[in-house]
Specification:
The complex is a heterodimer of chains A (about 350) and B (about 280). Chain A is an alpha/beta fold and about 350 residues long. Chain A is about 35% helix and about 20% strand. Chain A has twelve helices and 13 strands. Chain B has a single domain (about 5-270), classed as Glycosyltransferase (Alpha/alpha barrel). The interface between A and B is large, with 36 and 42 residues.
Chain lengths: ~350, ~280
């Protein structure tokens, strides 16, 4: 017993150490309990690899855009051979002005996809503001453009739905209702307009995914997502929809009070990438914006795609020489590269 | 008013009715409350009404996707189409009880109060769902002055400077929004009988604005609004525009739009069912 007997002093020291250890474990456990759970699972979303993006020069909508897109898509290694493709333009309003992805770019993408060997092509959109998608489709000229190239339009607000678990946890939503036409497509192509956005700074291929979720479940203009936080919703939806191609219409973009009330900015470019985050980082740079200062884009670069320009191989036009600073609302001046 | 075009639309709508009387949002889709409710009103169809009655929840509400998605906004429409008055009142109670959090000028939540009605549970109040609650209250419980006044007040407050209604607010970040014909039509359906300057400004806006939004839903709902208000000047051109739209797109296969078009071009008494006692 003597060998095991402890002096009072040693007992106190050991008791203190044990208590400290217990407190330490407790603090660690408490820290773990208090710490928010990880927003994404690294096993599902490994560190984004280097990517490529192509900036294509297009001074107007009247040129041979299908050839330009065909070359651009090949330059970034887009492979749609034998696959079904859903093109998702940004169709917002019947307004005049550069609010919507231009129908000529959408039609050109259809032709380019066919040349690249796509098995089936549909165009789908679920506008956020407008329940009457037909009004926007016709007034924007997209209906006529799609008839010319013989492609069907799917109203993603009205299409049959399936329920899918959310792949990330930026919002409180744990599942997402998505149109079956979108889920069944082999390749989802996000085709946004190059625009500033009065809530989140920029709206590009990731934000464009808002139009993939149905208004009849999430309200107009997708109220539930606004309530959950627009940036967090962008991340969850983009991570769940996972568009595998992006084509950004920046021939005429929108600056200032976008995405609806802004001013036309003829940027004369189209951005193409197989990595939507890389496409958005490149497009932001073309607008004179540091993509890593855009909250959701910075977060997306951690898991969803490559957001660091130094790890995006630029093919096509020179990025720096093609850039043209877009006017920003006061609350987003800090996003500018030189701020 | 019923015309050959109306008969064509009725045939098309009857052609997509399921054997149980219900309608899906698109031709091959599962049955849902909203298209079934509008079709029941447009066709005065007993089997559609029966299907609706069979889908009413114990709480009085309706849900999409076999009950998986709560649907506040469709419940007010369904209330109008239910046969049994007790069932209709339960649906109305469900809809009225789901008021929205108040919205601030910047789009942020503003205080703890609730004001108006939204598309989905616990999101901000919006013009169209509020209008649906107002119509259902006026028809089913006209003595509920509190609910009616609240809805009218919200619609008046959300009217845009051009006289129309945007989907939700009249301004965002201090910038005036412009009205949409479709939302304006729904707000005017709700405000029939109120006889205010708000209505006059809204009608003046709608008489011109529908031409810019050549979709079946906009045109049909505009036609219903103008016929409710006995505003006959634009009815002929609107009906022709609706026929053109149908020829152009077949309304994209959307059964809800088709049902609104049947109501819009059908007998006046079916449209007047939305008036209530006013």
């Amino acid at each position: 017993m003597s060998g095991q007997r402890l002096s009072r002093r040693r007992l106190l020291v050991r008791a203190g150490a044990a208590a400290s250890f217990a407190i330490g474990i407790g603090a660690l456990a408490e820290d773990r309990l208090n710490r928010p759970p990880p927003r994404f699972d690294r096993s599902l979303f490994p560190e984004p690899p280097p990517a490529s993006a192509a900036v294509l020069r297009a001074g107007s909508y009247d040129g041979p855009l299908d050839e330009l897109l065909f070359d651009g898509l090949r330059a970034v290694g887009a492979d749609v051979r034998g696959r079904s493709v859903l093109l998702k333009p940004n169709l917002v309003e019947h307004n005049e002005g550069p609010v919507n992805t231009d129908p000529r770019v959408v039609a050109a993408a259809v032709v380019a996809m066919r040349r690249l060997g796509a098995r089936e092509i549909v165009v789908g959109e679920g506008p956020g503001h407008r329940r009457d998608v037909e009004a926007v489709l016709v007034a924007s000229g997209l209906h006529e453009a799609l008839q010319d190239v013989g492609v069907r339009f799917v109203d993603l607000n009205a299409a049959e739905l399936v329920r899918r678990p959310m792949r990330t946890r930026f919002t409180d939503l744990r599942e997402l209702w998505l149109p079956r036409a979108l889920v069944d497509a082999d390749v989802v192509v996000s085709m946004p307009k190059l625009k500033t956005h009065h809530w989140v700074g920029v709206t590009l291929s990731l934000k464009n995914c808002f139009g993939c979720v149905p208004g009849r479940v999430y309200g107009w203009p997708k109220n539930v997502l606004h309530f959950q936080g627009i940036e967090r919703s962008i991340l969850d939806i983009a991570a769940t929809v996972r568009p595998s191609l992006a084509i950004v219409d920046g021939i005429v973009g929108m600056e200032g009070d976008g995405p609806i009330l802004g001013t036309a900015q003829p940027a004369g470019v189209i951005v193409v990438s197989t990595d939507p985050v890389a496409a958005d980082a490149t497009a932001a740079r073309l607008m004179g914006i540091d993509g890593e200062k855009v909250g959701y884009l910075r977060d997306a670069g951690r898991f969803l795609g490559q957001g660091r320009l130094e790890r995006i191989e630029q093919r096509g036009e020179d990025l720096e020489r093609s850039a043209r600073p877009f006017a920003l609302l006061d609350q987003f001046r800090h996003l500018a590269l030189r701020s | 008013m019923p015309t050959t075009f109306h008969s064509t639309l009725v045939d098309a709508l009857r052609g997509v009715q399921r054997v149980d009387g219900a309608f899906g949002l698109t031709v091959d889709a599962r049955a849902e409350p909203e298209p079934t409710a509008v079709a029941a009103l447009a066709l005065d169809d007993a089997s559609a009404r029966r299907w609706l009655a069979s889908r009413q929840g114990a709480d009085g509400g309706f849900a999409e996707h076999d009950g998986l998605v709560e649907d506040c906004a469709s419940t007010a429409l369904a209330a109008l189409a239910l046969d049994r008055r007790s069932a209709a009142l339960r649906a109305l109670d469900y809809a009225v009880a789901r008021r929205s959090p108040q919205i601030g000028e910047s789009g942020d939540e503003n205080g703890d109060g609730r004001d108006g009605w939204g598309w989905t549970p616990d999101t901000y109040s919006w013009v169209e769902p509020t209008s649906r609650v107002l119509i259902a209250t006026r028809v089913l419980r006209p003595g509920d002055a509190t609910t009616r006044a609240e809805a009218v007040h919200l619609l008046e407050a959300r009217q845009c400077p051009d006289g129309g209604w945007n989907y939700g607010n009249a301004t965002v970040n201090g910038v005036d929004l412009r009205g949409y014909a479709q939302t304006t039509a729904v707000a005017l359906q709700a405000l029939v009988g109120s006889g205010s300057a708000t209505v006059e400004r809204g009608l003046a806006f709608l008489r011109g604005a529908w031409r810019d939004e050549p979709g079946g839903l906009t045109l049909a709902q505009s036609l219903v609004a103008l016929r409710l208000h006995r505003d006959r000047g634009a009815i002929g051109p609107l009906e022709r525009a609706l026929a053109d739209a149908h020829q152009r797109t077949h309304f994209l296969g959307n059964v809800l739009v088709l049902a609104w078009a049947v109501l819009a071009t059908g007998p006046q008494e079916r449209i007047d069912a939305l008036r209530g006692g006013v």
